[in-house]
Amino acid sequence: MIAAMMASSYNAKEEDGHHSGSSSHGGAGAVKSKKPDNTAFKQQRLPAWQPILTAGTVLPAFFVIGLIFIPIGIGLYVTSNNIKEFEVDYTGVDINSPCYSCAKNFSWNSTQSCVCSVNFTLEQPFESNVFMYYGLSNFYQNHRRYVKSRDDSQLNGDLSALMNPSKECEPYRTNDGLPIAPCGAIANSLFNDTLDLYYVDSNSTKTPIPLAKKGIAWWTDKHVKFRNPSGNTNLTVTFQGTTKPVNWRKPVYELDPSEADNNGFINEDFIVWMRTAALPTFRKLYRIIQKKSGTTPTLPSGRYILDITYNYPVLSFDGRKRMILSTISWMGGKNPFLGIAYITVGSICFFLGVVLLIIHHKYDTRNNSADIPN
Amino acid sequence: MAFWRRKAHIEKERHVKANAREYNDKFSYADNHIKTSKYNIFTFLPINLFEQFQRVANAYFLVLLILQVIPAISSLSWFTTIVPLVLVLVITAVKDATDDYFRHKSDRQVNNRQSQVLIRGSLQNEKWMNVRVGDIIKLENNQFVAADILLLCSSEPYGLCYIETAELDGETNLKVRQALTVTSDLGDVSKLNDFDGEVICEPPNNKLDKFTGTLFWRDNKYALDNEKMLLRGCVLRNTEWCFGMVIFAGLQTKLMQNCGRTMFKRTSIDKLMNTLVLWIFGFLICMGVVLAIGNTIWESWIGRNFQVFLPWDASQDSAVFSGFLTFWSYIIILNTVVPISLYVSVEVLRLGHSYFINWDRRMYYSPMNTAAEARTTTLNEELGQVEFIFSDKTGTLTQNIMVFSKCSINGQPYGDVYDEFDQKVEITEKTACVDFSFNPLCDRRFKFYDGSLVEAIKLEDAAVHEFFRLLALCHTVMPEEKSEGHLVYQAQSPDEGALVTAARNFGFVFWARTPETITLYEMGHPVTYQLLAILDFNNVRKRMSVIVKNPQGQIKLYSKGADTIIFERLDPSSEDLVFTTSEHLSEFAGEGLRTLALAYKDLDEDYFEVWMKKLLFVSTLIENREDQLAVLYEEIEQDLKLLGATAIEDKLQEGVPETIACLNLADIKIWVLTGDKLETAMNIGYSCNMLRDDMNEVFVISGHTLLEVQQQLRSAKEHILGLSRVSSAGSVEKTDTFADDSVFEETIIAEYALVINGHSLAHALEAQLKHVLLDVACLCKTVICCRVTPMQKAQVVELVKTQKRAVTLAIGDGANDVSMIKTAHIGVGISGQEGMQAVLASDYSFAQFRYLQRLLLVHGRWSYFRMCNFLCYFFYKNFAFTLVHFWYGFFCGFSAQTVYDQWFITLFNIVYTSLPVLAMGLFDQDVNDQNSLRYPSLYKPGQQNLLFNKRQFFLCTLQGLGTSFLLFFIPYGAFSVMVKEDGSQFSDQQAFAVTIATSLVIVVSVQIGLDTHYWTAVNHLFIWGSVTVYFAILFAMQSDGIFGIFPSNFQFIGAARNCLSEKSVWLVILLTTVVCMVPGLAVSFLRVDLFPTLTDKVRHLQQCRKRQGPQEQNLRRVRRTSSRRSAYAFSHQQGYGELITSGKNMRMSSVSAAPSAGKSPHSSNWIENMLKRKNEVSCISDENMEASKGNKAIQTPDQHTV
């Protein structure tokens, strides 16, 4: 198509150019040589590395890949297996499940929150820091309309955006004429179950386990991406003129009554929630159980009770809620996939190398130039 | 440009009055201002944008852009499309603007040329653009004609003037134009100022050879035709000055009317690409539909319930409607499978390849200071797929230079050089040539190697002297003394020039001629012969004779002609001589030389008187004059005595047989289409090694009727098929019905050649025979068509082009090749001696036929190879990039959520991956140029279209599909449970996006690395650079600073930092890369290892021999065995002895002597005769050109190189 422009049909300079040689003014000076420059570039002789696939290069590559991948895979697999993880589903689908009634009787309007307790036993003690996650399944945090339903300017503390949130937040942009802070579907659907963990020792006393709620969000999110408007001296004042999201019980500046500087947009639970998951089944960090000093395990083996303040309805769309306890390693959490994948790929490469080697030796047909027809 | 003007006034007839601007202004004819440019500063933007959006690709992206601003369906920000689109538009606009700037410049230059215009009684200098219709302008020698003008008078007698029409039809010989007798004496300004004739003529048109009009002057009507017109673009030659009246000016001149937009040639890859883009588009719609259906299902099963947290939009009230919107959203997201940068990149590549052709020193011809030139930049890869070459002969295969190389005098052959052992020595550049210093008048460029001939001259061998005397006397050459003692011959045909020059060097210098005398310097002494008669050459006679009276009073007839003709008319006494001479003739012909036999006769004075009287009588006859003359000539040309024979070498261009042999090895079929005669064409065929004596059969088709031609073609075909398939006799009939004979072609081992004459070709090209013709022609190794008109050349090309669906290339140098050059897929012009017309119409031009080898086997092959690799990779890359969204659709509720950051989508094609693939497309070489030439078979994959076809396309899209699958599902597997090393959540969308994007960039970079065969520094720079730039931009776009400025456009703040600091992410990337690469690597290794193509073998060989020096090409020219063929091979059609004896073409000074009374009636009407003769053939334009070539102008090649 561009060709159309490149091919010019008539060019007056050609009419002229041809003539100049023979006409009266043609004898002016020596004719400039049109001989192209002898540069490697113009003559397409640039020095170059010309790799070709030969048995000498490809086969070793396969073996090397195999030999590197298999140990990595084994390492990953062993590490992943050493990680202790415990998971409990507290959705309350099953009629025998402790949260069944809470799940059944859920209503947005009820002022009284429903509490249920789940008992479980840890067979093995959890050493070092233990991380407590909540997991949701079949929850489409990655739906396009959901993902875009936020206003990053507002969340970054922009005052005008606070009062006049982006259109993307519809239908959670305003409520009763007041701008919603934080606006949008993501904020509106903030996970608001409260999970408390108790250790039940041998004489049945419930010892609450201290759950750290700080340090669960990314540093960049907490310090750069999310900011309260104009400092956070008095959040109540700052957020005056806005209203809380429809589903919320409390306004944004009262998210964490226990700690003043964990309120507003920089509330870590909120930040964690706002980082939308890639897949419909996901887990998000809820609390950290810090390692105690000394040799006692963070979570010794034994019986535990998980108290759930059941505020978050998921049954209507077949969702599931889980609580996960996990330790971590140098490669993060439990992740058997990578280890298995590495071992598999490594073995396949090695095997492929062997097969190719055999094929190469048995059927190699290339013997230099002997059969090149001229 | 001027369509509104055209609408307003349709010109039926043109009225032009001389010297009356007011009168002519009424008609508002175009002035002489020309404009080839398209834009000015103000119209550039709107017009250019309008033009650009007419292209499908741009329009497509504009539509996408519009879709993207609809909030309900916009799945991507507007900038993802607008940035690439603007980039593409800007690049194109800049190029258009530059082109137009140069057009402006050249327009301005042409418009500002000076010409002398007669205004109010005096000559004034005016710019060309101010010349108007009806003006009288003066032209001087060597000036361009400013407009189409009617010749009024000139400095030459009879109002003649000479023009060169190279710009119009490409012929460099001079043509004569003659003014009306009534106007030819208007030679001074005052008379011209009073001239008030009115011309009524045809409206402007593009027929270069036709003009009809009438001049009304002084109450008389004079008919005007093309012979009185000087067209814009011609150059005045050999004429001091002339005056003319402007009839058509500016854009209405015939030259400009001929400059219609040339038809665009598109390559087969172009067409394939368009088809594929349509397919991709269809695929895109399918994916959209699948995902839209998925969305409808999802919304009605899950989304409906998920409204607790994600209510439906107010506008979206049903799942079906949501599906409909999603369809559009996905069209937007997945649009990158139709890559916007594809078209631009392809153009850039082609431009680059064109520059490489222009820059190639090995296609530069230093004697003419001509480099190869790619005149169109869009056809390069097609050069790698050529199957048929149609070549002109004269000037393309041959140099159109005739060289006197051998002779046989009185039974004694001369011309070969023998060493001391009596072994024939090959004549090369280094062979010492004969010293002609004894002759001060010799032509220094003449070379002869056999000293014995000079010895014979010096010994005053009578036969030898008579031999050269004949050569010096019997011809129609005109001498011109350029400076003291410096003679230049103007010969009608190069053959004659060569013969006269030979005589000159051997001491018989043709010095001067008048209508009655010829003066020679015979061994330094001037001798004047009375020229009594010229018995001119024509095609029937195939000989010419002169009758001269030497100073001793003897009357002699000298004759030269085709050997068969001369031998028939010999005196019985020459019988022995005939025997030896014809042996020599066979020998000469066997070497591909053109031969002539020479004979003389002493005439009895009385006999001659009687004969001369008859001649004078006959020449005044009105009826049957030609026939009567022929009878008379026949009568006197009897009982000749044989002198000997000459052999002229029609010099082939350098390297022609080698090139043809090489191209044949590359399975390229070469057909020669020439206007020459059968014998000449076959001669050249033999010397080019296209015809060989060891060929099984050379079929000559020369039937005059349809039936005859059919018969001949059928029997040729039966002959071929009968020999090769003895078993199935019935198949011959069958094959007539099947157009495709490829099966048979494969099985023919024997070599055949087909030679077909022009008049037979006319029948063979008719609908019922063309299939047979094509079948036979394709079964033959060599096809030569002779005596073909330019139209037929185009028809033959068209036939092969449409019926064989093969890529055709036409190569030629003359105006008669233009139609064929324009018809073929690729037209190549030889910038040779015959002007520029062929070059101007061509797509590629260079100076020598042998460069074709390099153009096709090196540049063409590389271009094709690069383009195919480029396209494969490009489609692979875009599929891998885009289809990830498709897989993601299944996990995000088919909501058209993108996997990547929007900025990544914007930049992926234009920044992250564009340069490495461009570098590969520009610089890649699988095999170097020496090996490409050494192994012509490497060319075959291109002809079979193996490197990029629908199958390859499927394979590379399949690879892309697979890569996208792995790119999505490996991170999916890893991310479903992944947490960071500090325990914080990590399976979020942004981390996922960064991981997949990084894997993608690395995977496609590794892939291009594997696809690159030739890693230059540029490739290194671009590949490593692109990866580096990716990371740089990634971190920059996700940095705190830029987020602080535009929080809502750069939401990915910190994602890269958090993500890429994780070991597990790198493990995922490594795993993805390896898994994506390993299958491809294993497959290509196995392919190379088990089924290596020729390319692979040569590459391997090249690798092994890397350190040895460059390989010389060892294609030996095979000397063929001799066979008897002889031809009187003059290339002209009609002699002009008449012109010479009339003396009209000589300057007044040289013919001051009054012509003898006896000849005046004969001579006075020669111009009328000529014109009459011309009118007979002028109905076919092409023949007209040839006729005019034979008619007048005398111009040797050496004159216009001065």
TrEMBL record, chain A:
<dbReference type="GO" id="GO:0030658">
    <property type="term" value="C:transport vesicle membrane"/>
</dbReference>
<feature type="region of interest" description="Disordered">
    <location>
        <begin position="12"/>
        <end position="35"/>
    </location>
</feature>
<keyword id="KW-0325">Glycoprotein</keyword>
<keyword id="KW-1003">Cell membrane</keyword>
<comment type="similarity">
    <text>Belongs to the CDC50/LEM3 family.</text>
</comment>
<dbReference type="GO" id="GO:0005783">
    <property type="term" value="C:endoplasmic reticulum"/>
</dbReference>
<keyword id="KW-1133">Transmembrane helix</keyword>
<dbReference type="InterPro" id="IPR005045">
    <property type="entry name" value="CDC50/LEM3_fam"/>
</dbReference>
<dbReference type="Pfam" id="PF03381">
    <property type="entry name" value="CDC50"/>
</dbReference>
<feature type="transmembrane region" description="Helical">
    <location>
        <begin position="337"/>
        <end position="359"/>
    </location>
</feature>
<keyword id="KW-0333">Golgi apparatus</keyword>
<keyword id="KW-0445">Lipid transport</keyword>
<feature type="transmembrane region" description="Helical">
    <location>
        <begin position="52"/>
        <end position="78"/>
    </location>
</feature>
<keyword id="KW-0472">Membrane</keyword>
<keyword id="KW-1015">Disulfide bond</keyword>
<dbReference type="GO" id="GO:0016324">
    <property type="term" value="C:apical plasma membrane"/>
</dbReference>
<protein>
    <recommendedName>
        <fullName>Cell cycle control protein</fullName>
    </recommendedName>
</protein>
<keyword id="KW-0813">Transport</keyword>
<keyword id="KW-0812">Transmembrane</keyword>
<keyword id="KW-0968">Cytoplasmic vesicle</keyword>
<dbReference type="GO" id="GO:0005794">
    <property type="term" value="C:Golgi apparatus"/>
</dbReference>
<dbReference type="GO" id="GO:0045332">
    <property type="term" value="P:phospholipid translocation"/>
</dbReference>
